[in-house]
Structures are given as structure tokens and as C-alpha cells.
Design brief:
little secondary structure; two-stranded antiparallel sheet; 1 helix; 2 strands; 6% helix; flat
Length: 72
């Protein structure tokens, strides 16, 4: 079976304060066993309240964009 991939361009002005991100899907929280950290990441001493977040497809998606806003 041939391996296929697809890419999407980053949204223009995604870092602007007024960028409309309401249509973006929310992050999915995974356990360490679901993610399967390796290559040194399995040696990280995770803070107990840390969360491993990604898209809804942790095995397929290899790039994510996120936004965090805070009031000043």
C-alpha cells in the first residue's frame, strides 16, 4: 500500500488577537499509555496535573496549531 499525506496551509493572521478560531476542533487529552512516549520523552518526570494533548488522531496528525489568549 502506498503511503499518502496531505498538508494544509496555516491560517493567515492566526496569531492576531481578533482571529476567529471558533471553528477549530478542541484538543483531545491522552494518557501516557495512549501516546506511547519514546526516544527520551518516556524519561520525562511529568508533573501529576500535566496533560498530553493533541488532535483527535494522535497517530496520524503530526503538526498542530494552538492558540492561547489571556486578558491583560
Amino acid at each position: 500500500m502506498d503511503c499518502e499525506f496531505g498538508t494544509l496551509a496555516e491560517p493567515v493572521d492566526r496569531t492576531a488577537a481578533l482571529f476567529a478560531d471558533s471553528s477549530w476542533p478542541t484538543a483531545t487529552v491522552y494518557t501516557a499509555s495512549e501516546v506511547g512516549p519514546k526516544d527520551g520523552h518516556d524519561n520525562v518526570l511529568w508533573v501529576p496535573d500535566a496533560a498530553l494533548i493533541w488532535t483527535s488522531d494522535v497517530k496520524m496528525d503530526n503538526t498542530i496549531l494552538w492558540r492561547f489568549t489571556t486578558s491583560g
